[in-house]
Amino acid sequence: MIRKEWKIRAGFVGFGEVNTQREFIDGRCRNAADELKKRGVELVETAPVSDDPAGEQARRAVAELSEEDFDALVVCVAGWIPTWAVIKVIEPFKHKPMLLWGLSGWRENGRFVTTANQAGTTALRAPMREMGYNFKYLVNFKDAPPRYDEAVSYLRAASASARMRHAFIGMSGYRDMRLFGTLYDGNLLKRKIGAEIEHFDLLEINSLIREIPDSEIAAHAEKIRKNWDFVRAPRDGTVENSVRLALAFRKKIEERGYDAFSFCDVDGVKKLLKFAPAGALTLLHDEMDIPSVPENDSYGAVTELIMKYLTGQSPAYMEFYEFTKDSAIMGVPDYVPSSVVDGRITVMPNAFGSFGEGLLNVSKVRTGTVTIARLAQVGGDLVMHAVRAEAKTPETWEEAGWAPPAPQLPSLEICFGKSSEEFLANVMSQHYIITYGDNLELIRNYCAINGLSFLS
């Protein structure tokens, strides 16, 4: 069953040996659970478990944890615990990611007090690995702040992983411009990530375009003219073309319940409908919070959805134009979602090559710390390449081929903080997905949960 509202949701069970005073176990487990809740994690909880000889506490914990669904299990070790008692609780949930988390002791009356938390975790780590559990091992360090945020990062990645198991991505067309880098292995994608891609023809979109009432087109065209800044006046029909295509895409997306979207751009919309679709996708992002990438970029769309679920942001795609020794000029020759725009959306009516006029999005893009990421297939398996960088506004530049005056494309200079050669050694595509902030830990956790190689 797919949850309608998806929040970070984890099971939580604490452990401590039967001879350890219960207040030392209960109170610290309670505090750890409360700190996770403060950080937005919903918990399915059961009382801490000890190694009572009859195993009654373990059976009780299993029964209570089984009553509700969750995406990962927090195994909170608050003191020494014989391994059997833990395995008896967690074995029924072996199919879920787990956080093996050892708490630390405390200071009291001038001395440090411990319940041998890490005797418990170190006794568990190797057996759990040998038994095939999928888990992250995390210990709180003596006299250091508890690692609550790291715990939440793992649980957020587990939640994203669970959501991706149900991901349904729509794609109009297939293999735009006969690109090899946009191909994908559907069986591999389903096995490692869980996502499925459904393809449909542009003819279906063209049919939907014809069904849209003129009144609805006029209303959205007026909304665009009010809410967007135009560099110059468009030709008659340019705005309406963008509206028709956006509303047709939206109808298809809503009918099928797609979580992300891609489409045949150059050999599809531009070739067959005779105009550039940038304005339509800009409007689509105004209407819907859905990741999108053009040119039938299969793994690009999957990457966008992963990053959305990991960060809660609406990601943007960008492609590489130039490299310096330690940076890259990244931009888009069409559109960016409003989530990355600095100020109001700005569009320029323009045409490229033989394609008709469309509304090119020329908005200024926000700067700051970013993470750029890309899922790709290497040697028959999936890998994730991601780096943290600093994004700044690039110098004035243009792409040859646009009708003059050439537009300043939405773009960033991505400063790696190291030689570009290190990045280029692993680059996977012309398209990378941008989110703001340092999201590498989230990505590492996601990759570990799903058995993906991580390159940085």
Identify low-pLDDT runs.
Answer: none
Overall mean pLDDT stands at 94
Helix proportion range: 25-40%
Number of strands: 21
Main sheet overview:
6 strands, antiparallel, barrel
Overall radius of gyration: 26 Å
Rough outline: elongated
Strand order of the largest sheet: 13-14-19-18-17-20
The proportion of residues in beta strands is 15-25%
Structural class: alpha/beta
- Give the CA-CA distance, first to last residue: 35 Å
Number of helices: 14
List strands and helices in order, with pairings:
Layout lengths: L8 E7 L6 H17 L3 E4 L10 H10 L6 E6 L5 H8 L7 E5 L3 E3 L2 E3 L3 H14 L4 E5 L8 H17 L3 E5 L13 H7 L3 E5 L1 H10 L2 H14 L1 E2 L7 H19 L3 E4 L1 H9 L4 H10 L4 E3 L3 H14 L4 E8 L3 E5 L14 E5 L7 E4 L6 E11 L2 E12 L18 E5 L4 H5 L6 E6 L3 H11 L2 E3 L1
Parallel strand pairs: 1-2, 1-3, 3-4, 4-7, 8-9, 8-11, 10-15, 11-12, 18-21
Antiparallel strand pairs: 5-6, 13-14, 13-20, 14-19, 15-16, 17-18, 17-20, 18-19
